[in-house]
Amino acid sequence: MAALWFVLLTLLHTAMPATPDIVHLEALKAFKDSITGDPLGVLARWTSSHHHCSWPGISCNPSDNSVISIDLPSRGLNGTISPFLGNISTLRYLDLSSNSFRGTLPSQLGNLKEVSWLDLGENLLGGTIPSSICNCTSLTYLSLSINRVTGS
Ligand SMILES: *[C@@H]1O[C@H](CO)[C@@H](O)[C@H](O)[C@H]1NC(C)=O
Ligand SMILES: *[C@@H]1O[C@H](CO)[C@@H](O)[C@H](O)[C@H]1NC(C)=O
Ligand SMILES: *[C@@H]1O[C@H](CO)[C@@H](O)[C@H](O)[C@H]1NC(C)=O
């Protein structure tokens, strides 16, 4: 059994392309840049000395290193939500709930065609729900509770 796992892991490893996905990397950097407060230092390891797939809160598809999950609830993060997140077309799971995100929801989040879980609840977001969110055709869970967001 252990030998089988070794073979599988080796196969997965050799299937990984050497070059990181630049678009996803740039999007994550822009996301970090739009965060002004990180009291727990969660994003301190989001640096070029680690591949972005190993950054805290990030999960990638091991077969192609595309980012599939950003999971950062209750981290005390203060800032705005970067529209660059909409460039991570493979994102399936986004949980930024219970932080101090301010500003409005970027309409670019509507570009996330694969996203099925979107939790931005318990933040300080305002404005309206962009109609483009309705374009997230895979969406099965959306929470914007305890914000000041209004819909139409
Ligand atoms: C978030 O950052 C803004 C601007 O840097 C600051 O005015 C505000 O007090 C911060 N809020 C929290 C909850 O830390
Ligand atoms: C990503 O998104 C931003 C803002 O939505 C945009 O300005 C940028 O050109 C996009 N493309 C890439 C490849 O970063
Ligand atoms: C939804 O996506 C389609 C095709 O990608 C686009 O033409 C349309 O403008 C989008 N709708 C919204 C509300 O963003």
UniProtKB/TrEMBL annotation:
Residues 26-61 form the Leucine-rich repeat-containing N-terminal plant-type domain. InterPro entries: DNA_repair-toleration, Leu-rich_rpt, LRR_dom_sf, LRR_N_plant-typ. It comes from the Eukaryota. The keyword Membrane applies. Keywords: Leucine-rich repeat, Membrane, Repeat, Signal. It is found in: Membrane. Residues 1-17 form the signal peptide. Gene3D superfamilies: Ribonuclease Inhibitor. GO terms for cellular component: membrane. PANTHER family: DNA DAMAGE-REPAIR/TOLERATION PROTEIN DRT100 (PTHR48060), L DOMAIN-LIKE PROTEIN (PTHR48060:SF21). This is Leucine-rich repeat-containing N-terminal plant-type domain-containing protein. It comes from Colocasia esculenta (Wild taro). The lineage of its organism: Eukaryota, Viridiplantae, Streptophyta, Embryophyta, Tracheophyta.
